[in-house]
Write a structure and sequence with these properties.
The protein is α/β, with parallel strands linked by helices and 492 residues long. The chain is built from 17 helices and 16 strands. Belongs to the glycosyltransferase group 1 family. Glycosyltransferase 33 subfamily.
Length: 492
């Protein structure tokens, strides 16, 4: 009797889905130029998926982008009439029961909620999914694809289980379960993209997944900031953050001055101050894969060098972003008593972040990657703004940062402090190493994301022969040259 009731319940649940799926398959035939993009995270903090949506729209697709709307996406996305953003509701952590139970309830809720959202949207020829986070979105998107006849495309940014491993440890049962899940359902996709050659090889060797390397490229709005826009940004930030305010009042009371620039009231001409501080920028998600104690220790050494009489400028260090460890590091920063260094941690609007990068003198990246196989998008954006970078070293960083060409690679705080001393010695020095890196980046003339992605990846998505290929055991993972352009093999 109990078995019959379970069967009847299953039929009652599945039959509406099957009927809805059949209707959506019929509808999908009328929406061949429609793509559903899924981010089980904040859309505003998912730049790569925003660029995917913009590139697809440029190529004539209509795009429905599902994700959390905790921060504002770029204006180009909001103003594009081919892109519709559908907000998802995030279930906050429960305060009842053990942590495993809370996590399980959250996963089940997200699975059912995402299934409902996808089934009541216009069906797409393709479901384009960001991973991580892939639990439970990979399984849900695959299931919806089976019902509606949509092809599943996964863009591998990293491995979700490796990020979980930073918190729980690599051998925790939840981490091992997440790894099995990611591996099993990841192999059911029709096409896979990834961010590095190292990840492509790992997917092939250990997961038997054929993937195509698509390096991140800076979007068109990541570029050098004109001096007048720099001044406007500094004045805006100075209203809320003291490091951007003028150190002294100008002689002419109508002259507008920030810590770095001033505008002549009569001519409107903006100039840089001769004794301005150096502007160092780092962006972060404030997670376990970025150890900001390295930067704080390097700043302490830099401060000591300044006190010892070395010819170094005062320093404004701006760390942008939101995340779980922000409050922890903010407390550490407030405990420091710097005399020549000011640190602030603003949360910038989407339009102001590229302007800040294009105004800075140096970028610092502390991203180490939980898997060692992904590259930091923040460095890509910095390079787009011709901003030299010092980056902490890890397994595949050489695919992006070329030591002594477009930046420097360091191992610890001692090495970073020595690099800061070398780069900022006699600042601003037109013949110094910092300026040479800037010239190298300016002369590189890389393709922007929207151009390179449309030219190289969309033909792959449209090619029905490649879609559906699965990598068999021991099958070499080597994309054909006809599909894999030279520009993808050289990120910078």
């Amino acid at each position: 009797m109990a078995a019959s009731c379970l069967v009847l319940l299953a039929v009652c649940l599945l039959l509406p889905l099957l009927l809805l799926g059949g209707w959506k398959r019929w509808r999908r035939g009328r929406a061949a130029r429609h793509v559903v993009a899924v981010v089980l995270g904040d859309v505003g903090r998912s730049p790569r998926m925003q660029y995917h949506a913009l590139s697809l729209a440029m190529h004539g697709f209509s795009v429905t982008l599902l994700g959390f709307c905790n921060s504002k996406p770029h204006d180009e996305l909001l103003q594009n009439n081919r892109i519709q953003i559908v907000g998802l509701t995030e279930l906050q952590s429960l305060a009842v029961g053990p942590r495993v139970f809370q996590y399980g309830v959250k996963v089940v809720f997200q699975a059912m909620y995402l299934l409902w959202k996808l089934m009541w949207r216009e069906p797409g020829a393709y479901i384009f999914l960001q991973n991580p986070p892939g639990l439970p979105s990979i399984a849900v998107c695959w299931f919806v694809g089976c019902l509606c006849g949509s092809k599943l495309v996964i863009d591998w940014h990293n491995y979700g289980y490796s990020i979980m491993g930073l918190v729980h440890g690599p051998n925790h049962p939840l981490v091992l379960l997440a790894k099995w899940y990611e591996k099993f359902f990841g192999r059911l996709s029709h096409l896979n993209l990834c961010v590095t050659n190292a990840m492509r090889e790992d997917l092939a060797d250990n997961w038997h997944i054929r993937a195509l390397t698509v390096y991140d490229k800076p979007a068109s709005f990541f570029k050098e900031t004109p001096l007048d826009l720099q001044h406007r940004l500094f004045m805006k930030l100075g209203s809320t953050h003291s490091p951007f305010r003028a150190r002294s009042e100008p002689e002419d009371p109508v002259t507008e001055r920030s810590a770095f620039t001033e505008r002549d009231a009569g001519s409107g001409l903006v100039t840089r101050l001769r004794e301005r501080p150096a502007l160092l920028v780092s962006s972060t998600s404030w997670t376990e894969d970025e150890d900001f104690s390295i930067l704080l220790a390097a700043l302490e050494k830099f401060e000591q060098l300044t006190l010892d009489g070395h010819n170094l400028p005062s320093l404004v260090c701006v760390i942008t972003g939101k995340g779980p460890l922000r409050e922890y590091y903010s407390r550490l920063i407030h405990q420091k008593h710097f005399q020549h260094i000011q640190v602030c941690t603003p949360w910038l609007e989407a339009e102001d972040y590229p302007l800040l990068l294009g105004s800075a003198d140096l970028g610092v990246c502390l991203h180490t990657s939980s898997s060692g196989l992904d590259l930091p998008m923040k460095v890509v954006d910095m390079f787009g703004c011709c901003l030299p970078v010092c980056a902490v070293n890890f397994k595949c960083l050489h695919e992006l940062v070329k030591h002594e060409e477009n930046g420097l690679v360091f191992e610890d705080s001692e090495e970073l402090a020595a690099q800061l001393q070398m780069l900022f010695s006699n600042f601003p020095d037109p013949e110094g190493k910092l300026n040479q890196f800037w010239k190298n980046l300016r002369e590189s003339q890389q393709l922007r994301w929207d151009e390179s992605w449309v030219q190289t990846v969309l033909p792959l998505v449209m090619d029905t022969q490649l879609l559906g290929q699965r990598l068999k055991p021991r099958d070499p993972c080597c994309p054909s040259r006809s599909f894999f352009s030279e520009s993808q093999g050289k990120p910078f």
